[in-house]
Structure formats: C-alpha cells, structure tokens
Amino acid sequence: MDYTGADLVGQRFDQLLVVKAFGKKNGHYMIECLCDCGKKTVIRKTRLKEATKIGCGCLKGKWTRHCESHTKLYRVWDSMVRRCHSQTHKAYGRYGARGICVCDEWRDYVAFRDWAMSNGYAEGLTIERIDNDLGYNDSNCCWATRKQQQNNRRACVYITYQGQTKTLTEWSEALGITIDAAKRFFKGNDQAKRAEYSTAHQARL
C-alpha cells in the first residue's frame, strides 16, 4: 500500500481532483488537489478518504444554510451526489465510475430543492433519469414512484402486444396474472407469437 497517497493521483473525491502527493506534515500525509472552482488546496490524506462532501472551502455553507438536512428531499440529494462523486460510496461503481455525474447547479442543495419543488416532488417519490446513460440535470430527470422506477430500470423488458407497449410487470397486472405466468404467455401462447419484443440493454425474459 502506498501510504503517501501517490496512488490516489487522478482520482476524484467530491469537489476535489487529486494532483499529487504533497509529502508529510505534522505526522500526516498531505495530498494536493484541484477543486472544481479552479483553486488548488492541500488536505490530509485521511480526511480526503473519509469525507463524503469535500472541497477547498468555496462552497462552505451551501450544504447547511438551508437547515433541511433532516428532510427526505435532502437525503435524496445527498445520496445522489455521493453515489456520483464519492468513490467511497457503495454505489459509485454503477454511477460515478460510469461517468454519471450531478450537474454543477445541482451540487448546491438549494438549487436542487427549488427545481424539485417546481417539478412535482412529493413525499414517496424518487428521482429518475430519463436516459440512464446521462447524468443528473433538469432536462434528464423527473420524479417517479418506486413502482414506476422499477418498471423503467435498465434491465426492464418492454413488450408490444396488440398495439400497446408495457413492461412485463405492467402486462402481468393488465392480464391479471403473475409475472411468471406472463412470461409463459408471451413465450408460448399462440396469440402472443404475434407480439413484438424489445429489450433495454439486452435484458431477456
């Protein structure tokens, strides 16, 4: 293991991009980073790896001036930012590592909150990206119930049958049968042979 932090060069931690290992100071390994605002800063390696939201100080106060850190909407925002910009987050591999990021405007919770309240946010809804290969911004996001989001997940199977396109889950509900029965129906039923199948990201029945 490289205790100096040289192995972190090129990695991003929230607002900071690691530039180089700075050396040891007062018993701590220090890391030089470039902030998104353009300013360079030197920070302890331990703090860099432990913090979930970190920068050079240019955004100080933006995360807390709203006094809403206890709200559900704040937790939605916090989770969104961390999975995209904190390499220590458990979901980073599915988001930040794939290039999915939060737009600069929404890195400020207040700006995100204002968009949310003007675009249909309500308790129980989750934020969903319209195009799963793009990031979080006002033109690619909407609010959905967990059920809707599940139906629209990357592995969803869409089936066009009798002029209507639905997910397998939605067809099972429309036909009044279980999902397994719906699978059998669309695979083996003579009528269903006329159905057109399309999948998202190579998903299969």
The biggest beta sheet is recorded as:
4 strands, antiparallel
Task: Please compute the radius of gyration using only Cα atoms.
Answer: 22 Å
Low-confidence stretches: 197-205
Order of helices and strands: EEEEHHHEEHEEHHE
**How many strand segments?**
9
Number of helices: 6
Which band does the percent of strand residues land in? Answer: 15-25%
Give the SSE map.
Blueprint: E1 12-13, E2 16-25, E3 28-35, E4 40-44, H1 45-50, H2 72-85, H3 109-118, E5 126-129, E6 141-144, H4 146-151, E7 157-161, E8 164-167, H5 168-175, H6 179-188, E9 196-199
Antiparallel strand pairs: 1-2, 2-3, 3-4, 5-6, 7-8, 7-9
Give a quick set of tags describing it.
205 residues; four-stranded antiparallel beta sheet; three-stranded antiparallel beta sheet; 6 helices; 26% helix
Architecture overview:
- With 205 residues, the chain is α+β, with helices and mostly antiparallel strands.
- It has six helices and nine strands; from the N terminus they run ββββαααββαββααβ.
- The protein has helices spanning 45-50, 72-85, 109-118, 146-151, 168-175, 179-188; strands at 12-13, 16-25, 28-35, 40-44, 126-129, 141-144, 157-161, 164-167, 196-199.
- A four-stranded antiparallel beta sheet has the order 1-2-3-4. A three-stranded antiparallel beta sheet has the order 8-7-9.
- β2 and β3 (28-35) form a beta hairpin.
Can I get a quick summary?
The chain has 205 residues and is an alpha+beta fold. It has 6 helices and 9 strands, in the order ββββαααββαββααβ.
